[in-house]
Design brief:
The chain has 381 residues and is α+β, with helices and mostly antiparallel strands. The chain is built from 8 helices and 14 strands.
């Protein structure tokens, strides 16, 4: 009996030692296979500095990951994505509801879009499918995603001057992306985000149904008080103008349901000054173009509030989006000579308004330039 107990104790001690050894070795094994996978991506190269396992919590942390774009010919790498830390774990809130799903937390993530001479004249949409990459690290469906202190950057080294603009201090929280709870709601998932844009503040809110057959969502976004002077490299490169003063705001609401959408976008520019004392060294053609741009701004500027603004409503089907240009022109003139559009969300678009009255009222210019359908029908008879 004594020898049997001693044998049992040795087995338990051996199992305990094996668990400890596996626990110590497993992070290095996972790190090796993860880096091997990241190094063999087509067109990309990635690397992880360290991985920390939290078995009891059902999670692990990725410490300092980066993914670079890699030129297939020269093997030259350019930064694309990085994150100081990524926490991948089981979402306990959904688990208590009976769903086994995961959650991701990115700390200080960084995403950079670049444009150069060999790429098309547009922001290059990355071909890598992050869902496939994440599937290798997180086998569960992602139900909750959070970004803390992120940066999204756009660079163009082919322009003169070079363009380097960024959205900073991005904080985003997306919840219930797999509809693991509140399954009876029309829009069960939610996204809330804030960010800084050159002294301005961006705010984004959305309710959506990610599992719907057709895009179904109700979102609003507003950008307040962005300093246009701090984006002068962008304006000089693409519009060939210098902005000496000006604050920019943008307000929008959009809803979509059953492949139809409805919304508006409302840009507002305050205290716009394109041509000033700072432009004395510019050549004659540059000064002429800036004068035209500045003159256009003054023409459509509200004199009382010193702002340029318009509201552009739009609606249609997802496969055929269409914006009413006449409404845009009318709103610009109305703002310039009658009243200023208030810089705020109007709270008039919701998921219930998507299938509202689709007949648009004709504006002043439409009545003048568009054909009268009734008269045309009489003439055809």
């Amino acid at each position: 009996m004594h020898s049997k107990r001693r044998w049992t104790a040795k087995i338990l001690i051996g199992i305990l030692i094996a668990i400890i050894v596996i626990r110590l070795v497993l992070p290095y094994v996972v790190l090796h296979f993860a880096n091997k996978s990241l190094a063999n991506m087509d067109g990309y190269y990635g690397h992880i500095r360290d991985i920390d396992l939290a078995i009891i919590r059902g999670a692990y942390k990725i410490d300092s990951i980066y993914i670079n774009k890699q030129d297939s010919a020269t093997q030259k790498q350019t930064p694309f994505f990085a994150s100081k830390e990524i926490d991948l774990s089981v979402e306990w809130k959904a688990l208590f509801k009976g769903s086994v799903v995961g959650e991701l937390v990115f700390r200080r993530p960084y995403l950079r879009f670049t444009k150069d001479k060999v790429e098309p004249k547009e922001v290059v949409k990355d071909s890598a499918d992050f869902r496939k990459i994440l599937d290798k690290f997180m086998p569960l469906n992602i139900n909750r995603c959070e970004l803390l202190g992120g940066v999204i950057q756009y660079q163009d080294f082919s322009s003169k001057p070079n363009v380097d603009i960024a959205l900073t201090d991005l904080n985003l929280l997306a919840q219930n992306l797999r509809n693991s709870y509140d399954s009876s709601a029309l829009l069960p998932a939610s996204i809330h985000a804030t960010a800084d844009v050159y002294e301005g503040k961006l705010r984004f809110d959305a309710r959506l149904n990610p599992l719907a057959n057709a895009p179904t969502f109700d979102m609003s976004a507003e950008l307040n008080n962005t300093n246009l002077v701090k984006m002068n490299d962008f304006f000089q490169a693409y519009a060939k103008v210098d902005v000496n003063d000006g604050r920019f705001g943008l307000y929008t609401e959009v809803a979509a349901k059953d492949a139809e959408f409805k919304g508006y976008v409302k840009p507002v520019i305050k205290n716009l000054d394109v041509l000033g004392r700072e432009d004395r060294k510019d050549n004659l053609l540059r000064k002429l173009w800036e004068a035209i741009a500045g003159g256009a701004g003054k023409l459509f500027e509200n004199k009382n509030k010193d702002q340029v603004a318009t509201k552009v409503p739009f609606q249609g089907r997802i496969d055929n989006p269409k914006t009413n240009v006449w409404v845009a022109i009318t709103n610009i003139l109305q703002n310039a000579f009658i009243h200023a559009i208030q810089p705020s969300i109007d709270n008039e678009i919701s998921i219930a308004s998507v299938k509202g009255d689709k007949q648009e009222k004709k504006t002043f210019f439409q009545k003048i330039f568009s054909k009268d359908d009734g008269k045309d029908k009489k003439k055809s008879k």
